[in-house]
Each structure stands twice: as structure tokens, then as C-alpha cells.
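Example (one chain per record):
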Amino acid sequence: MGVAIRTAGEGDRDLVVRLLDEAFRNDPVSGWVFPGAEDRRANHPGLMAAFTDIVLAAGRIDVTEDGSACALWMSVPADDHDDEGDGGGEGEDDGPAQVREAVDPDNERIEQIGRLTAAVHPSGRAHEYLWMIGVAPARQGEGLGTALIESVLDRCDREGLPAYLEASNARSRALYERLGFEPSGPVLDLPEGGPSMWPMWREPRAPKA
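Predicted structure:
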């Protein structure tokens, strides 16, 4: 049975924020950004809300019809990067600083993660950027994330567009590899003993018959 997918609108904001918060609260990168459990409970939803607002304004969010999973995408032109926070953009942009100011001005890692991922984001070719994908914990392992990603990759293949992402844990990296993504440049090791992130790139394939 296929997975019904639709494009999210402003009315879906709270749903998307909740999904991302639940899906990423225990992610290694979120744990690095908010190392204290109490701080993470207090501020992690705000960071997910900031990301959601950026993509609602400048990109596209796909959600499953039953509200159990979402994927945040940005279309990056050949001569530019997304300069709004977590990925893409030159080092001079104010996006990461603005996100930090909005979420928790005292936490420099909020800004740092944005600048670090921006620094490794490929440039020079238009591509689709999978910023984040979140699946409700109780629904993980059912193929919902794969369905969300494949719906965009099919379009990428038809249009001859590559795709890019940063995997934040080994499990997601394995999924992306099965979908045709390959390592893109060196692994990003977060400072101060933080976890690794894997930049990954996917060249378009011949469209399915």
C-alpha cells in the first residue's frame, strides 16, 4: 500500500514542530547542541520551530497524510546556498546567528552547527537539499521516511537534479545509502568530542520506466 503524501502549509506548523522534536530530541547532534537534558526539553522545540518556519517560508515541507512523518526540503540554486541557518550559505551570512538569538542566545552551539554545516555544503550545482526528516517514534521502521524521500528523488531523476543531505547518525546514513546517496567530502566531526555528521550527495538516475 502506498503512502499518501501532501505539502504542508502554515496550518501544519505545530504538527511538524512536534514531529521534529520527538524524532530528533535523542539524536546525537541534538544532544551535542543541548547537552543538558533539562535544557534540551526547554529549548529543542524552539530550534525545531525555527527550522520549520525557515522551510515553510523558503522551501517545502512534505507530510504523510496521517501526520506521522515529515520531510523538510530546500531547492538550492547553482550559484547560491540556503543561507538561513542549518545548511547552505556562505560563512558571512547572519542566518545561524539569527536562529541562535531566537532560540537561546546563550547557546553558541546553535549558531556553530549552522556555520559548520554551511561550510561543507556543496556549491556550483543546483540541487534539492533534504534539511531534516522526522518520523514519529512509534512509526519508525515502517518505511514512511523512505516514501517521503523517494517522492522527491523520483522528481530529481525526472528533472536531472542531484540531492544533498547531512546524515546525523549511522542508522539514517545506512538508509540514505540504500537510496543512492554517497559520501560527499570528509566527515564533519563536531568540536569538543561531539558526534559525526556525514555529508552525502546523490546524482540523478535514469527515471524509472
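Caption: Residues 6 and 74 are 16 Å apart (CA to CA).
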